[in-house]
Amino acid sequence: MNILVVNDDGYKAEGIKILVESLKGYGKLFVMAPETQQSGASHCITLHTYVKIHERSNFGDDVRAWSIEGTPADCVIYALKYLKLDVDMVVSGINDGPNLGTDTIYSGTLAGATEAIVHNIPAIAFSTDFGGFETARKETGNVLKEIFEKKLYSSEYVLNVNFPMKKFEDVKGIKVTEQGVRLFMHDFEEKDGEIWARGWWDDATNEPHTDVYAYESGYISLCPMGISRAHREGIKRIKKALK
User: Fold this and answer.
1) Could you give phi then psi for residue 232, rounded to 5 degrees?
2) In whole angstroms, what is the distance from residue 5 CA to residue 63 CA?
3) What is the pLDDT of residues 88-132, one digit of tens each?
4) Residue 91 CB contacts under 8 Å (≥ 6 apart), including other chains
5) Can you name the CATH fold of 2-180+206-242?
6) Which residues contact 128 (CB under 8 A, 6 or more apart)?
7) Which DSSP symbol is given to 27?
8) Would strands 158-162 and 219-225 be described as parallel, antiparallel, or unpaired?
């Protein structure tokens, strides 16, 4: 199996190093990561300017790696279409910060994985609590073993994996979840004529079957996420109204 590893934190990030080490043994690895931090880039792609690609050697002699002056989605597009890498799976992360609930719409980590299923390639996205790399180091191999042995991956969805809050010394287990609610709120700070939209996550009530609840309760969340944003009940209501 040929596996492309991408992220949104940049090619020097701690999380992608852990992910590459954990994936060794599952196939031939390639890395294509952003040159700089791209958190919050969502599914942005570069359309109106040139980009530069740099070959990198910081993942060892057995892993061909590049950085791109672009976005996480660019990583997949340029790896597949420009470098023409033969890729069987894309794995994104490990993000420094969770990607849960409604917050996933901003995620560059999810976007890199989602671009893979656009091209009919199975994809997995990994995220952990801010600075929660101790849990990630300990658990990534275990989760990958479950995913590969039981073939939990698919080209029809991104398997969104989130490790629990780092306050939990021991992971309680794995939960298959649905997308919850995690609203990102904004607080604006002005300085020298510039404005910074600082933010935090608002408290929201989440049911036990959601990814947010699992994360906040000490569980690893596995949430399959697709591409379509069509609202089925909305379609039914509008069709009925127009009949």
Assistant:
1) -60, -45
2) 10
3) 999 999 999 999 999 999 999 999 999 999 999 999 999 999 999
4) 3, 4, 5, 6, 19, 23, 113, 123, 124, 125, 126
5) Stationary-phase Survival Protein Sure Homolog; Chain: A, (3.40.1210)
6) 15, 94, 95, 96, 97, 98, 135, 136, 162, 163, 166
7) S
8) antiparallel
Q: How many percent of the chain have pLDDT more than 90?
A: 91
Report residue 202's pLDDT band, with 50, 70 and 90 as the boundaries: confident
pLDDT digits (tens, 9 = 90+) for 136-172: 999 999 999 999 999 999 999 999 999 999 999 899 9
CA end-to-end distance (rounded Å), the chain: 50
Peptide bond into 105 cis (omega under 30): no
Q: How many CB atoms lie within 10 A of CB 44?
A: 15
Residues 225 and 109: their CA atoms lie apart, in Å, by 13
Residue 141: per-residue pLDDT: 97
Question: What is the DSSP code (8-state) at residue 97?
Answer: S
Query: Cβ distance 2 to 86 under 8 Å?
Result: yes
All structural domains of the chain with their residue ranges: 2-180+206-242
Unique residue bearing structure tokens 């039981």? 150
User: H/E element holding 19?
Assistant: helix 14-23
| One-letter identity of residue 37 | Q
Alpha-carbon gap, residue 121 to 195, rounded angstroms: 40
| Side-chain half-sphere CA neighbours of 235 within 13 A | 4
Q: What is the mean pLDDT of residues 34-54?
A: 95
Q: Are 219 and 164 in contact (CB under 8 A)?
A: yes
Considering the entire predicted model, what is its pTM? 0.94
